[in-house]
Predict the 3D structure of the following.
Amino acid sequence: MHSTVVKELTGASQCFKPIRGLVDGLNRYLKGWMTYFSKGYPRRAFRKIGGYVRERLIRHLRRRSQRPFRPAEGTSWYQHLVRLGLVSM
């Protein structure tokens, strides 16, 4: 389902990709899911998928180098991911 594709997009084998390219790929995938779930009552599905994607992306950012990545002081992870251009669901 969606978790395996997100795992592939944010896995350890993607550490060579620039962050903007990685986020663009995730956005393309997430927009497809948003279109799929747009009928009916998508709030619960969007919340689950969005939370999972944020968790995986944060884990990916921390894994990229020997020193774990942290957002600037006074900035939350959510704000940092929005600045990177991640689509919020």
Q: What stands out?
A: The chain has one domain: 2-84. Helices lie at 2-9, 19-36, 43-63, 77-84. The mean pLDDT is 88.
